[in-house]
């Protein structure tokens, strides 16, 4: 790596800090100033903690930059100053947290008039937050001495960074006793009441939103803290103040006793929804407010909250009928006049939370107001608002599955000798007053009629299917099954028959389509080119296998999960570097080989025969050309010097070139057919340079007039597909009867005469054809004569004259 050779560059800051007149801006102009500060460069840290430098750094984040500065670099130094002050260097934290003058200059930012600069406010909040975490005792003591601190925080609550700072004071203080002191101090300063006063129509939307979010976070943080610190006997004073009846009544009074303001109404409802978060196990079909698989404490709703909300139920009901004025909304499918709006949607959510408490007096009030009927009217009117549809589905599923309250009197008896069943007044209201069954059947029929006429499917049909399934399920297995069955039996005969036909026909068909097994369905294909038949891909249909896989996915991670996950680094290291890697995993390898290779062997043999067939003639009974053959040489060839070998090799090369030509072409050779032959050790005669006469030219060319067939019993030269046999003979210069190597007399030639020429004979075997080629070198006539003949023909095939 590069650090082995010390190639890293030295920071210019060290050189810069050696100057006596270096300024803070010059240091902050360096690109690596933040990196050097976080790495605690001693020279740089000593420079930054100088009193004047610290004062300048705080001034950059608390004072507005000059307007004449270019916008591009206007907030450059404030940003760098904030990063330097929050780099979590102990010397800087000590200097800033223990110097009251610096803290006062930092605190002075809150004394500016609203609205605050949001960027500078974020710098201020970040610096003060890290001081609260690192120096909690000093910072809390300093802030408690400032009598206007809470007033200034509430005054600037419309700035999100100030809201974050308030929440930091509740979460970043680690000592439990100090945190309890801070809570008591903030409660004495009436921070909850002041935040409640911010949520009223006279304030702007930013204050509504931030004040509401602050109160909601205080509720959640306080409840979570109570659960985590179970041994703490002191209650949370802020949470206790929020749950008081007068506090909730003040919230409701802010939105109902004054003009209707949607922002204020929604903010108050958000606070009430947070107070109603009981974190109880959800009913079947109810969307749980807690993430699945996590266990949260169960908090009961304070009765004082319900007592404060119950008198205002009629006001919430009126909001459903007459919401704050909204402009007409044009959509792609029609005009909404008026649209649902955020107000009515949050009121429906509030009704859902009130139903979850299952309080008898609240249920009776909702029934008297017919709030559920109004909500159902909205469900079927606004076809495409799935937020509304989801809340209505939750309401119906909750009502069908919730047990009856203790205040409700028993009215249903199975038999005289059996225990009476309490009546759920909400279910009775839903089936009789709201006519839920009839409205489901009518809406389903209208949707099918529109679809048959070419219209689109209504947006609430999916939720309507789930509502119908909830009714069927709870009538069979729910805690109110007997009451639901009785209410269905009390329906008019026509409606009852329609419902029975619907559940056994259309609803069953829809459920069948919606529960298609996407893994094992063969008629569902991928859109890619490589389509896979999932039915044959090995996915098992056993539910136990699927359950085991689901359990595997949901299993808890152990502490050594990270060490066991993935592969060992040494598995990917160079084997030259890691020589001691044990073969621990060899024994774990489990594989099987199919030893029945007869089919593969037969296939291989067939392929080989098909490829070799091109070298053989069809129907040939000759010997196998691939068999190994012995190579034999005549004695003269063995005694011939190296020059003869050269001539033989060149002759063979010439023969191979001539073999490429048609064996039946004319014997009239052209100039391109001539072949140069190395004379080797043969001396050059005196008349070599002038073979230009007709006689010389006639003697200089060989004429193949006949050839002698070669016996197939002659030894082959090699085991190649084209076998050759080489022999050397001596002939007379006139090309008469040759003399055999053994001195045998042929055609009357005296064997004692000295041979004056050499003959090299090559026998080539190709399949059933054998061809013999002889080369005769005549020193006197200065010619080399080639002769070629085959055993299948009695006349010469080729004749070429080669100049010697």
TrEMBL record:
Family the UniProt entry places it in: Belongs to the SAPS family.
Molecular function per GO: protein phosphatase binding; protein phosphatase regulator activity
Gene Ontology cellular-component terms listed: cytosol; nucleus
Lineage start: Eukaryota, Metazoa, Chordata, Craniata, Vertebrata
A Pfam family matched in the record: SAPS
Region annotation (Disordered) ranges: 632-757
InterPro entries named among the record's database cross-references: ARM-type_fold, SAPS
Name of this chain's protein: Protein phosphatase 6, regulatory subunit 3
Annotated source species: Cyprinus carpio carpio
Compositional bias (Acidic residues): 647-657
